[in-house]
Write a structure and sequence with these properties.
- By secondary structure, the chain is mainly beta.
- 0% of the residues lie in helices and 51% in strands.
- It contains no helices and 13 strands.
- Strands 6-13-12-8-10 form a five-stranded mixed sheet, with no helix packed on it.
- The radius of gyration is 30 Å and the shape is rod-shaped.
Length: 192
């Protein structure tokens, strides 16, 4: 059983003597779960002149936000060293509650990199965070800022959801210094 905060409204009251319709009281119960997943508990109501308390079983499932990522992978293709290329990363909130989200580059530190960070590709995200209403969609613009050196980039974008699991989208880019070569065998120089 998860930790629950249970608030009955009204918390106490007086029930009139039963008439033709019988005696009734409507009690609204607000349940706030502090953990995701199934929960259940029993609420006991006591009444004077009644031997046993009335017991009401409360159960349900506490859900967090859930998103549907509409692009399984970001492919920047071949990017010339020093250039910038942008791609859209769309996702939709498919849950009945607002989704607070934040995007960042997943930790890819390999511990062996002594190169200057300006020579490596960097990535930026716009917007970087927000709250998405139920059924809402957002397009994150992911920009690859190619470094000055050739490299093949394989990493992941991390989408963190408050109160739910983190999601990942793979991305790839091939940073190249484009060069032009002449094939002398096909080069026509004319009459000389």
């Amino acid at each position: 059983s998860n930790a629950l905060a249970i608030v009955p409204t009204p918390a106490e009251g007086t029930l009139a003597p039963s008439g033709d319709d019988g005696a009734r009281a409507v009690v609204d119960v607000s349940v706030t779960a502090t953990e995701l997943g199934p929960f259940s508990t029993t609420v006991h109501y006591k009444a004077t002149d009644v031997v046993r308390p009335l017991s009401v079983r409360i159960s349900g499932v506490a859900i967090g936000p859930e998103i549907s990522i509409l692009t399984p992978q970001l492919n920047f293709g071949i990017v010339r060293a020093g250039d910038q290329v942008a791609r859209k990363l769309p996702f939709t909130n498919v849950s009945p509650i607002p989704a607070e989200w934040e995007v960042c580059l997943a930790d890819t530190a390999d511990g062996n990199d002594d190169s200057d960070s300006s020579s490596r590709a960097q990535f930026s995200f716009h917007p970087q965070s927000g709250t998405l209403a139920p059924g809402g969609k957002v397009n994150i613009i992911v920009t690859c800022h190619a470094g000055s050196q050739p490299e093949i980039v394989r990493n992941s974008v991390q989408i963190r959801l408050k109160g739910s699991r983190t999601r990942y989208v793979r991305q790839r880019a091939d940073i190249q210094q484009l060069k032009c070569f002449l094939d002398r065998s096909n080069l026509r120089l004319g009459n000389s």
